[in-house]
Design brief:
Blueprint: H1 2-16, H2 28-39, H3 48-65, H4 76-82, E1 87-97, H5 100-106, H6 109-129, E2 133-138, E3 141-147, H7 155-180, E4 188-202, E5 210-214, H8 216-226, E6 232-236, H9 237-240, H10 245-248, E7 252-253, E8 274-277, H11 279-286
Parallel strand pairs: 4-6
Antiparallel strand pairs: 1-3, 1-4, 2-3, 4-5, 6-8, 7-8
Helix pairs in contact: 1-7, 2-3, 3-6, 3-7, 6-7
């Protein structure tokens, strides 16, 4: 029943954007400059409706005109290299595309590439608009992190709002364009955790050697994401306790059997709690 509701909602939203397909086809050169213009405009946009509109334009240009996204650039590399061999407090986000294996078996290669690239780039773009950093793309997954030691009063709210916007961009922005273009709608699972992590550099070259993040919250974010349902955001207890009380109200505590979830808090030793934010809440907010 829930899947039917989601499909019906996507179909309804798709009708609202059919007019976008009637835009005159641009040349490859014009289309490329257009994508770069709206993808790298240098301004932060945290309004969900604006994020959705911009995402629709970029995805439409990709699926209709075959224009690839420009190279993704953010300041993650600079942040990591400035903190090599040190511990940093960060929020870690793990975003995974649902059903990509079946998609790769049922769609032509060029469509698979278009779908996964559009998904990953749009998720990454949304991360940067909320001040986050992209760590890496891993197949159909996106790994991002947010500095927890910034000047924001509620940094946990910032990454949670980012994740909510990512789901809205996906369901209200990307999916309607894909649906009316003959592509299957997408779904994602998001997991977020918080903690101390170590920045590691693999090699002696301070500018070129690979840098990465190691730590328990990196592993926990992936495990939390694995427990999520399609188009659901799950956060660890250490994230939930740092949220503003009003933001906490949008989450519900999840209950899993001991065989499904057996991970304990690294300090208290108690079973680590998980809290959920579902697509139903997102739909209600966007209506």
């Amino acid at each position: 029943m829930k899947r039917y509701k989601i499909k019906k909602a996507v179909s309804k939203k798709a009708k609202k954007v059919k007019g976008l397909l009637k835009t005159p086809k641009r040349s490859a050169t014009d289309s490329k400059s257009y994508v770069e213009m709206i993808f790298q405009d240098g301004e932060k946009t945290v309004d969900s409706n604006t994020l959705i509109t911009k995402a629709q334009n970029r995805v439409l240009n990709s699926v209709k005109n075959g224009v690839e996204y420009p190279p993704f650039v953010d300041k993650s590399e600079e942040f990591l290299r400035n903190h090599v061999n040190s511990r940093v407090h960060i929020f870690v986000m793990y975003v995974d595309l649902v059903g990509s294996t079946n998609m790769s078996l049922s769609l032509p290669e060029e469509k698979v590439v278009t779908v996964i690239s559009s998904f990953a780039q749009e998720m990454a773009y949304t991360v940067t608009q909320f001040g986050g950093y992209m760590l890496k793309f891993v197949g159909d997954a996106v790994l991002a992190y947010f500095n927890a030691e910034n000047d924001l009063i509620y940094p946990a709210d910032n990454i949670v709002n980012c994740a909510k916007s990512m789901l809205r961009v996906l369901t209200d922005g990307i999916n309607p364009i894909l649906t009316i273009s003959g592509y299957p709608p997408l779904a994602a699972k998001i997991g977020i955790d918080h903690g101390q992590n170590i920045i590691v550099r693999y090699g002696s070259d301070k500018r070129k050697s690979h840098v990465d993040i190691l730590g328990p919250s990196m592993n926990m974010a992936a495990k939390i994401q694995n427990m999520a349902k399609p188009n659901q955001l799950l956060i660890g207890g250490d994230v939930y306790t740092k949220l503003h009380p009003e933001t906490q109200k949008s989450f519900t505590k999840k209950k899993f059997s001991k065989t499904k979830w057996k991970y304990h808090h690294r300090v208290t030793g108690e079973l680590y709690p998980i809290y959920a934010y579902d697509i139903d809440e997102i739909s209600a907010e966007s209506d």
